[in-house]
Amino acid sequence: MIPASFKYAAARSVEEAVGLLADQPDAKVLAGGHSLLPLMKLRLANPAVLVDINRIPGLDYIREDQQIGRLRIGALARHIDFERSDLIRNRYPMLWEAARGIGDPLVRNRGTMAGSVAHADPASDWPAALLATNGEVVATSPRGERVLPIDGLYVAILTTSLNPDELVTEVRVPIPDPRTGSAYEKLERKVGDYAVIGVGVQVSFNEAGTIANAGIGLCNAGSTSIKARRAEAFLVGKPPAPDNINEAARLAMEDSDPVEDDRGPVDYKRAMVRELTRRALSRAFHRAQGGN
Ligand SMILES: Cc1cc2nc3c(=O)[nH]c(=O)nc-3n(C[C@H](O)[C@H](O)[C@H](O)COP(=O)(O)OP(=O)(O)OC[C@H]3O[C@@H](n4cnc5c(N)ncnc54)[C@H](O)[C@@H]3O)c2cc1C
Q1: Is 108 left (phi over 0), alpha (psi -120 to 50) or beta?
Q2: Ligand 1: distance of its center to the CA of 118 in Å?
């Protein structure tokens, strides 16, 4: 349970951090440390250098930017910052619910959304929630910045399409349209645990009251975080009738591919994808119609 030896560098700016990452191919970013350090203790990760970004000023923001139509989240915004934010609670209830369900207070006090997105653990809640919102990451390297949709970021377990010298400096979420609702459902064995299954949902209505957009992200339901595309496509243009919710939930289950482990057998997990999708859709539609 003791990590292999490594060098440590505390960056004071984004430029310094990306320079350190570029100089040393076997370097890793240290953000909250709540995923990286356990892996290092188990010697499943053995970086030669840790580039600590915690002392870079000005990266802990969560704010809406009407000019680009995005909620902008800095790399050092921690899970607790979402939980405590009235903006998130009132305008992005799925993100608020997802944040509150992550680990325990110790984890939420240090862990960051950007770190969770970069870590690419399919059992993490943020990637599923962000897939439902069509979120993006801003990746910064010595070559400049690029904006990547989170849909497409996940290549395999713990593997993204980010380059090793890229720092996620920001996560972005499109500002929702007026008739939008969202919800996050998580089943856990006990408080503080990772999800058995988690489901994030965001839906919007058009003026006629039919579904204009639907986003559904699945947590711990496959080897990567999953966007339930067939369920999303099925809902568009339909009313939020119970039969449509049930069929979308069935399609989300079809899109899932969980494995058996100590959180349960495959059939149970697939059934939970269906049920949690049904619940999350019902609550998101209620919110999109003005409910709480
Ligand atoms: C007991 C426990 C329970 C937990 N329960 C849950 C849970 O229920 N749900 C859940 O979603 N998570 C859970 N977690 C994980 C936790 O949320 C982590 O904090 C999070 O997944 C990673 O964020 P971090 O800031 O700690 O990243 P770190 O551990 O610092 O880094 C994780 C990885 O991402 C890379 N990285 C970090 N930041 C960046 C960046 N800005 N740019 C590029 N790469 C970066 C690192 O190099 C590393 O490879 C739990 C953790 C623990 C220890």
Answers
A1: alpha
A2: 8
214 CA to centre of own chain:
17
For ligand 1, the distance from its centroid to the CA atom of residue 122, given in whole angstroms, is 12
- The pLDDT of residue 67: 98
pLDDT value, residue 1: 80
Q: Which residues have CB under 6 Å of ligand 1? A: 28-36, 38, 75, 102-103, 107, 111-112, 114-116, 118-119, 124-126, 167-168, 194
Compute φ and ψ for 89, nearest 5 degrees. -60, -40
Calpha distance 111→102 (Å, rounded): 9
Instruction: Specify the pLDDT at position 25.
Output: 84
Give residue 168's identity as a one-letter amino acid code. V
Dihedrals phi, psi of 217, to nearest 5 degrees: -120, 140
- Identify the pLDDT of residue 9: 97
pLDDT score of 152: 96
Q: Tell me, in angstroms, the distance from the centre of ligand 1 to residue 78's CA.
A: 10
Give pLDDT < 70 ranges for the chain: none
The CA 151 to ligand 1 mean position distance, Å, reads 19
Helices (H), the chain: 14-23, 36-41, 79-83, 86-91, 93-100, 105-110, 113-119, 125-133, 229-235, 242-255, 266-288
| Beta-bridge partners for 42 | none
Residue with CA nearest ligand 1 atom 9: 102
pLDDT for position 29: 98
